[in-house]
């Protein structure tokens, strides 16, 4: 029985041995094929076949959207008054459409109205004082005129009595002479004091008039301040809130009841029918662009929106860039063609500026072109299973590709990037 069992299990052992032998034979072959496939894929990623195709040259610019026509709403600056902040009592809703002369915001005008009434009362009082002073001067002038006329009449009467000195006694003649001298002295004194009184009265009236005029200006300032408490829209558009410092360590938009400082821009009215994008143009790209070029605009917040844009103008004066003072940038303005409900001011936007295209251009990746020690461009071209260095002449380029003018032909195989250095210093 044991012999029979051994004979029955022998085919299983042979079968297992055959399977093990087959696995040992096939496993190295599978490993070799896998390594070859990986090497082939790696080689395919590292080489590039030169081809002719349409080459588009674009320039990527980044900026922010803004309305071509807008009105900034500032907390009013009050004239002749020192105000720390003003309380908002009425406010137009954000995103609301407004027409010209619609109320945008109202501030608490109680203090300004009271100030205006106080200034008006002061002005009215000074107007009354000037009128009273003028009336008193008119009465004093009439009284002095009467006294002056009386003194002149006394002098004339004394002079008539002097003509009788030849027929009167010597004592009476001396009395007549004394009377004439006294009348002349009195008239002279009255004339002198008359001018002094008129000058003093005119000065007093003028002082009151100056105080009255100052009070009038203060009243007008107060009236102007009271009228500034209500801000009307000078144009039709959409209400947009600005993010400002609200105090208490927080930023946000204003609400009814908040306090704002004079001169703070907390709101704007924009015309969404005509938007534009402002960008900074690097000095290196300045000679490649000109007004009239077209671009495609995309919004970072809404990737699905794509609108056309046209370069309208470039600033003639440059300013320092954000990262280096040696690099100058120039402000450029693009007008946006078309509208979208989501297109609002202060959105970050990307512009692909079309600098032109070429048909049947010989194009290679930018990283394939290297520069030698003399700054001459070259590429690594495959030749008989190895790569050799070949000088080329390049043309226009964009962010990813460059046009080859000479040195390569369609179908040539080149390295996609520069070869790496081996530890011994030999290129692979």
In words, what does this structure look like?
With 428 residues, this protein is an alpha+beta fold. It has four domains: 48-53 and 358-415, conserved putative lor/sdh protein from methanococcus maripaludis s2 fold; 59-66 and 271-357, Efflux pump adaptor protein, beta barrel domain (Elongation Factor Tu (Ef-tu), domain 3, Beta Barrel), CATH 2.40.30; 73-108 and 229-269, RNA polymerase II/Efflux pump adaptor protein, barrel-sandwich hybrid domain (OB fold (Dihydrolipoamide Acetyltransferase, E2P), Beta Barrel), CATH 2.40.50.100; 112-216. The chain contains three helices and 23 strands. It has helices at 2-46, 110-162, 170-227, and strands spanning 47-49, 51-67, 70-74, 86-91, 97-98, 103-107, 230-232, 237-241, 244-247, 250-252, 259-260, 265-270, 275-282, 294-299, 306-320, 328-337, 348-365, 370-371, 377-383, 386-391, 393-397, 401-406, 413-415. The chain has a six-stranded antiparallel beta barrel. A hairpin with a 6-residue loop joins strand 14 and strand 15 (306-320). Helix 2 runs antiparallel to helix 3. The model is unreliable at 1-7, 36-44 and 421-428 (pLDDT under 50).
Key traits:
3 helices, disordered N terminus, 36% helix, 428 residues, 34% strand, OB fold (Dihydrolipoamide Acetyltransferase, E2P), conserved putative lor/sdh protein from methanococcus maripaludis s2 fold, 4-stranded antiparallel β-sheet, alpha+beta
